[in-house]
Write a structure and sequence with these properties.
Layout: H1 2-10, H2 13-16, H3 22-49, H4 54-59, H5 63-71, E1 78-80, H6 83-97, H7 104-125, H8 129-140, H9 142-146, H10 155-164, H11 171-189, H12 191-197, H13 202-210, H14 212-226, H15 254-285, H16 292-307, E2 315-317, H17 318-326, H18 333-348, H19 358-370, H20 376-384, H21 386-402, H22 404-423, E3 428-433, E4 440-442, E5 454-459, H23 468-479, E6 487-491, H24 500-515, E7 519-523, H25 527-533, H26 538-541, E8 546-547, H27 550-560
Parallel strand pairs: 5-6, 6-7, 7-8
Antiparallel strand pairs: 1-2, 3-4, 3-5
């Protein structure tokens, strides 16, 4: 029993698979059918967004889903190609293929393999971007709507190249693209009330509305085929292999892996954050649990599967997962059924999309990603924090002007710098006793009792190398005056950690205060922090005492004086 439980910890299917029921299978099959219908056009579109043949999207949605079914923990997360990761894939590979002698598709396989390896390693070791990305992705698809050639991974480059080639717009393609956009926007927002009016249940109306992209594909493909619009310059998908995903082997040469490591790391981070956020949100609605470490392994396995079967980096998709949830998926088996449905499509349905216009796929991408664009965050961030507002603005500008990959790097760096800045100036409050109680509050916010001989400072943050100096100067500035106190008490109720650098600073403060004739005491030190302090020299030479509560310290020191 113990061995089985241990195996189930790393292979969750061994756990939920034991109790799999007929009713769960029915629910999963229904959900899988709906998600498959939604995933077919998305997988084709996102493959083109990544700069790969349309069939790569189908390949990236079969074996990866099966592997996530085995190793994942979210019962409704729909794994496959997503917009942001596809855009980042295109940016990483296009930059690489210009500097190295490697094919585009081969580089995509290696990128998926490296990303999968990073996610697996992270899992085993347990260790304003979206809005701008949505705008950038939508802009990148305008060339397909217009029927012109344009390249670039930044907003200025895209708009400039599209503008230069605007006179070459294919008007037939433009009509198809605009009609597709209008239809998809209407289906997303306008068809549901009509269906409900005709007596359809709201949930069923929602699910039918999700099938809008399939209807757009069917109609536009028929129109292009019937009127032979390909001869009029309308770009079509063309021949798509009628087969299951091939067995592929990524190039794992050192030079290529080194060049792909940073892009793969960024893709892994973005993909994992997107997946875990939607997985945890949906799991909470059913009172289920998500294991983040196991999710890393599941997504890592999915990406390695993509690398071995002609795909490209994948992750959990927000919209598909919500549809999977709403459709009533009970277990991860819904993903396996979806993979089977996609395999059937790859075997028998690909000839039907030969005349599918790329303008329709571009419209599908634009409508999907514009749902990510949320300008209300600017208003909310301005009201809540002006600094956060400017951070959002900078992130958006960097994404649009420099590109997604550079923005992620800059965003991570900026976040670290902002964290260090914030924590380098911890909130320190001088506190006093609320009369008639044993509670101590900020003297600037409450009417409290104080004693001029006792200075009590409450530190509202853990102490480490970046803020220890600030606390030291704060204490000295407060003590060195005409009415210097006799005792300083550091109230540590909010201190969860004291690193070695901060410990050395406290030892120095203790020595200097002793030279001034002032004692240093600590109160309300948490157990784990106390355990670490006992390993150092501070407690051995502390000029004051350790107090279990601030009230004990205040009463003792005031009585002594």
């Amino acid at each position: 029993m113990g061995k089985a439980k241990g195996a189930a910890q790393f292979i969750p299917i061994l756990d939920w698979g034991r109790s799999y029921s007929r009713q769960a299978a029915v629910n999963d099959l229904i959900a899988a059918l709906i998600v498959t219908i939604m995933l077919i056009p998305q997988s084709l579109a996102y493959a083109l967004l990544a700069g790969l043949p349309a069939e790569a999207g189908l390949y990236a949605s079969i074996v990866p889903i099966l592997l996530y079914t085995i190793f994942g923990t979210s019962r409704v997360l729909a794994v496959g190609p997503v917009a942001v990761v596809s855009l980042m894939t295109a940016a990483a590979i296009s930059n690489l293929t210009t500097s190295m002698d490697i094919g585009y598709a081969a580089a995509a396989l290696s990128l998926a393999a490296v990303s999968g390896g990073i996610l697996m390693a992270m899992g085993l070791l347990q260790l304003g971007f979206i809005t701008a990305s949505g705008l950038l992705i939508a802009a990148s698809q305008l060339k397909s709507i217009l029927g012109v050639s344009a390249s670039g991974h930044t907003m200025p480059a895209l708009l400039w190249n599209i503008g230069v080639n605007l006179p070459q717009t294919n008007h037939v393609t433009l009509v198809i693209g605009v009609a597709g956009l209008a239809f998809l926007f209407w289906v997303r927002h306008g068809i549901r009330p009509i269906l409900v009016t005709f007596g359809l249940r709201p949930r069923a109306a929602d699910l039918l509305a999700k099938g809008g992209p399939v209807m757009a594909i069917l109609v536009s493909t028929f129109v292009v085929w019937n009127w032979d619009l390909a001869t009029a310059g309308v770009s079509i998908v063309g021949p798509v292999p009628q087969s299951l995903p091939p067995l592929t082997f990524p190039d794992l040469s050192f030079d290529l892996l080194s060049a792909l490591f940073v892009p793969a790391l960024l893709i892994s981070i973005i993909g994992f954050v997107e997946s875990i956020s939607v997985a945890q949100t949906l799991a909470a609605r059913k009172r289920q649990r998500i294991d983040p470490d196991q999710e890393l392994i599941g997504l890592g396995a999915a990406n390695i599967g993509a690398a071995l079967t002609g795909g490209f980096p994948v992750t959990g998709g927000f919209s598909r997962s919500v549809v999977n949830f709403d459709a009533g998926a009970d277990t991860l088996a819904a993903g396996a059924f979806t993979a089977i449905g996609l395999a059937i499509a790859a075997l028998f349905l690909t000839p039907l999309i030969y005349f599918l216009p790329t303008a329709t796929l571009a419209a599908t991408i634009i409508v999907a990603v514009l749902s990510l664009v949320d300008f209300t965050m600017l208003k909310h961030s301005w009201i809540y924090s002006k600094r956060d507002f400017w951070a959002v603005i900078v992130t958006m500008v960097l994404t649009l002007a420099v590109g997604v990959e550079a923005c992620v790097t800059a965003g991570v760096t900026l976040s670290i710098l902002l964290f260090l800045y914030d924590t380098s100036r911890p909130h320190v409050a001088e506190v006093g006793r609320v009369v008639g109680t044993e509670h101590f509050r900020n003297i600037k916010r409450h009417t409290v009792q104080t004693d001029p001989s006792v200075l009590t400072l409450r530190i509202d943050q853990s102490l480490y190398f970046a803020n220890a100096r600030f606390l030291e100067e704060y204490i000295y500035d407060r003590v060195i005056d005409d009415k210097a106190p006799n005792h300083v008490v550091l109230m540590c109720s909010a201190v969860n950690e004291i690193d070695l650098s901060a410990l050395e600073t406290l030892e120095m403060v203790n020595t200097r205060l002793d030279e001034m004739g002032v004692t240093l005491s600590l109160s309300e030190v948490k157990g784990p922090v106390m355990d670490k302090l006992k390993r150092g020299d501070l407690l051995k030479h502390l000029t004051g005492d350790l107090y279990r509560s601030q009230y004990d310290a205040f009463r003792d020191l005031c009585d002594n004086d």
